[in-house]
Amino acid sequence: MSHYEKAWQAVKTRIAEAAAKAGRDPASIALTAVSKTFPAAAVREVHALGQRAFGENYVQEGAAKRAELRDLAGLDWRLIGPLQSNKTAAAAAAFDTVETVDRLRIAERLAAARAAAGVPLDVLVQVNISAEATKSGVAPEAATELACGVAALPGLRLRGFMGIAAPDADRATQRRQFARLRACRDAARERGLALDVLSMGMSADFEDAIAEGSTEVRIGSAIFGARGSHA
Ligand SMILES: *Cc1c(COP(=O)(O)O)cnc(C)c1O
Question: What is the pTM of this model?
Answer without folding.
Answer: 0.96
